UniProtKB/TrEMBL annotation:
Gene3D superfamilies: Haem-degrading domain. SUPFAM superfamilies: GlcG-like. It comes from the Bacteria. This is GlcG protein. It comes from Novosphingobium fuchskuhlense. InterPro entries: GlcG_carb_metab_protein (IPR052517), PduO/GlcC-like (IPR005624), PduO/GlcC-like_sf (IPR038084). It holds the Pfam family HbpS-like.
Amino acid sequence: MTRISLDQAQTIVSGALAEARALKLKPISVAVLDAGGHLIAFAREDGSSNLRPQIATAKASGALALGVSSRTIGEMAVERPTFITAAAGLNPAGIVPAAGGVLVRGSDGAVIGAVGVTGDTSDNDELAALAGIKAAGLSA
């Protein structure tokens, strides 16, 4: 598999939203990007604050840009803050160095996109992202 289909992207969004509701999280926003960083699917729950679409997209885009989860980017930011700040400025969608941005891999293990979730704690955002990926039959 070399790409995320629209159906898979919508399933990721639905799966992440379902997990958020099951865990009684605050309202979340979910962005699914293809491997080139293009938005495929997005949802913003009622009550989400107005910057959440950009944050979700930046979590996913940053993961794609650096080839690691946004959780790992957060860890990198502690050790190399200047690098992450510079990379965020170079990446058109930005980079958010906090958990919730997860790479999506196809059946062959290749990165085919990323999902970004924001709205609750970063750890909970990541749980929702992982649930969405699993719901689509893909892996992180």
